[in-house]
Amino acid sequence: MAAAQRLPLPSQLGLIALLGSGVMIGGAFFFQYVMGLAPCEMCHWQRWPHFVAMAAGLAAFASSGRPRLATIFLVIAIAAIAVSSAIGIFHAGVEYRWWQGPQSCTGTVPTGLSPEQLKKYLFGAKMVRCDAIVWSLFGISMAGWNAILSAILAGGLASSLSRVART
C-alpha cells in the first residue's frame, strides 16, 4: 500500500472507487449466486453505475502520471456511484410502497383479458418483482443498503476530492 500512497490523490481515490464499487458488486453477486436471491430489473439498474465506477476508478488509478485526467475519471466514478445511490433510493421507495415502480416489474395483471391473452401475459411476465423485499438487515432492504453505502462512498470521495481542489 506504500506504493499507492505515492500516487496523486485523484489516483488513490480512483482506487478506492474501484474497490468500493467492486465490493458492492461482489455483495450483489454473493446474494445472487450464493444465497440464491434472484435480482429484479431495478437491482440490475443499480449494478450498471457501479460497473461504470469501477472502470472509471481503474482509469483514474492508471492515470497517475496525469493528475488532471485522473481527476476527470474520478469525477465520473463519483457521479456513477451517486447514480446507483439514487436508483437505490427509488427502488427502496418502491419496495416500501412509498411510490409506484415501473409496470414491467411491479405491475398487476391487467383486467379484461381473454384466456389466451392472459396466458400469453402470464408466460411473458417477469417472475422477480421489484416491489418485494427479499432480504433486509435492521429493516433496511438491499436496495436501501445500496443507497446508503453508495451515498457514503460517493460523498466521501467527493469530500476528499474537494479538499484537493481547495489546496
What's the quick description here?
This protein has 167 residues and is an all-alpha fold.
Widest β-sheet, arrangement of strands: 1-2
User: How much helicity do the residues have?
Assistant: over 70%
The secondary-structure class comes to mainly alpha
Shape: elongated
Instruction: Give a count of the beta strands, DSSP E runs of length 2 or more.
Output: 2
CA gyration radius, whole angstroms: 19 Å
Strand content: under 5%
Mean pLDDT: 86
Number of helical elements: 7
Unreliable stretches: none
Order of helices and strands: HHHHHHEEH
What is the rounded distance between the termini? 24 Å
What does this structure look like?
The chain is mainly alpha-helical. It is built from seven helices and two strands. It has a two-stranded antiparallel ribbon. The chain is elongated and about 65 Å long.
Q: What is the topological layout?
A:
Elements: H1 2-5, H2 9-34, H3 41-62, H4 67-95, H5 103-106, H6 115-124, E1 136-137, E2 140-141, H7 142-166
Antiparallel strand pairs: 1-2
Helix pairs in contact: 2-3, 2-4, 2-7, 3-4, 4-7
Q: Can you give keywords for this protein?
A:
2% strand, 167 residues
